[in-house]
Amino acid sequence: MSDATVADPLATPFLQCLIGRIRADDAFGAWERKSDTALLKDYIVTKAERKLIPIIGDPDPDTLSRVEHFYQAVGLAVERATGIMATPMMKMSHEGFGRIVLIAGKLVVFSRTLRDVHRFGFEDLDALASEGTKFAAQAVAMIEAHPDLANA
Question: With a threshold of 0.85, does the pTM exceed it?
Fold first, then answer.
């Protein structure tokens, strides 16, 4: 996995996967003319914006969709790096608490508890690219450590 702190975060493999995943849901071409940066703007939640979001709240369907797309892009980045499909599975309560796992073969390659999903977002594109790249690298390392299980 490449380092996400490059001059253009949009060039990172993870953000390319995320952009592709978002565009794949555009069945009618409504986002065709939108720039990649415009597609990712909902993932950016600055500290000031985060302070305006209540600490307790239920995530809306758009937020849940963004979380799912994020982890689907992590799985896609893992697949591109290893050739092994990493499928995300998310279980979420209506209050925004849950768990995401990525599974490759018979191996859980990534697991994370999710909290306060209604506040999901990143400070900027660099942070978004960095986190996605980091998660994908962790999953790739797990696959490399246990290739027999990942290929099962």
Answer: yes
